[in-house]
Write a structure and sequence with these properties.
Helix content is about 25%, strand content about 25%. By secondary structure, it is of the alpha/beta class.
């Protein structure tokens, strides 16, 4: 076994504490990665809060990270020691179902193995995440980090980035497409950057005009204030694609009203039951969809696209020793737009 150091949650409400723990020895198709930067995701907050329900006694969060390969298994040919890599929230899948064969390992019929809180497919152990100095991962689920990407700002691409990239590409967003992004947070700001880079006419929808300057800086062409009924009415049936990244419960009807005929609202932020009036879909043949994470081909393509178009997250980089402060501020939405932990202080 390999010993590393990381930040562990033991129970809801308690501060994460620095601990030593063991990683597996490298299998033939594994790479060991020195974790340099790991994004802090709302999923981490949810997982820590759910500890009492799951009964888990040990949780090391973190599922969007970049680092450097420090060792490889004997069958690994894709990487060498010293290579810069990125790893997301999926670290294995069955590889044989229809979804996996289609390159959509995120929809694996046997459920993908998650970077933390998942079940290892070979030994049944619980996976421990990347709020740590080292991670051991199957080589197929590590991605070369393009040289043009800053490794700290690239870390959130492996979760927030791929989550918005998936529907943008699936819905054919490109030049001439009219795209709206509802919510300008960790997901939303990357949706704006990627939509603009794809050539779309991009608009931000926000509860107030406070983020107008940020929206323009990110490349958006317009901002609609969702609490202004005149602005919402003027934008009715305007957008081919609406990416909804709002994380709290909200009515979809007003946003479906902004979708054009045969357009799509892709709901990404609120992972909970929603209620939809059929008439909001019927009038205009509108579609309601969703997406989550991405498969290996899409993740690799996204990283290359981001390097070519200089797209990365807007981050606040903090030493990992301030992880509890970062989680507390994230819970208050006090970040623009993504915290990233610098794990070098665990050396």
């Amino acid at each position: 076994m390999r010993t590393t150091v990381g930040w562990q949650a033991d129970r809801p409400g308690a501060a994460l504490r620095r601990v030593s723990f063991e990683r597996r020895d490298l299998r033939a198709d594994d790479v060991a990665v020195r974790v340099d930067y790991c994004g802090v995701c709302h999923t981490d907050l949810h997982a820590i809060g759910a500890l009492a329900e799951t009964g888990d006694a040990r949780l090391v969060p973190g599922h969007e990270f970049t680092g450097v390969v420090t060792a490889i298994g004997p069958e690994v040919t894709r990487f060498s020691v010293g290579d810069a890599v990125a790893v997301g929230n999926i670290v294995d899948s069955c590889g044989g179902c229809a979804m996996c064969r289609a390159g959509q390992e995120n929809f694996c019929a046997e459920f993908p193995t998650l970077t933390y809180g998942g079940t290892d497919r070979r030994d049944g152990s619980t996976t421990l995440g990347a709020y740590s100095r080292e991670y051991v991962v199957r080589d197929l689920f590590a991605y070369p980090l393009p040289a043009g990407l800053d490794p700290a700002a690239a870390a959130p691409l492996l979760c927030a980035g791929i989550t918005v990239w998936e529907p943008l590409r699936a819905l054919g967003v490109g030049p001439g497409t009219r795209v709206a992004v509802a919510g300008l947070g960790g997901l939303g700001h990357l949706a704006v950057k990627l939509a603009v880079a794809l050539g779309a006419d991009t608009t931000v929808i926000s509860r107030s005009a406070d983020k107008a300057d940020d929206a323009r800086r990110l490349g958006a062409h317009d901002l609609i204030v969702s609490s202004d009924q005149r602005q919402m009415a003027a934008a009715r049936n305007r957008f081919d694609v609406l990416i909804d990244t709002i994380a709290v419960p909200h009515e979809l009807g007003p946003y479906l009203g902004l979708v054009a005929m045969d357009g799509t609202l892709s709901q990404l932020g609120q992972l909970a039951p929603v209620t939809v009036e059929t008439m909001d879909l019927l009038v205009g043949r509108k579609k309601l969809s969703s997406a989550g994470s991405g498969g290996r081909p899409a993740t690799a393509a996204m990283l290359e696209f981001c390097a070519q178009h200089n797209v990365a997250a807007d981050i606040e980089l903090v030493p990992s020793s301030r992880v509890n402060e970062a989680l507390s501020r994230l819970e208050r939405n006090d970040v623009r737009y993504r915290f990233v932990l610098d794990l070098s202080d665990l050396a």
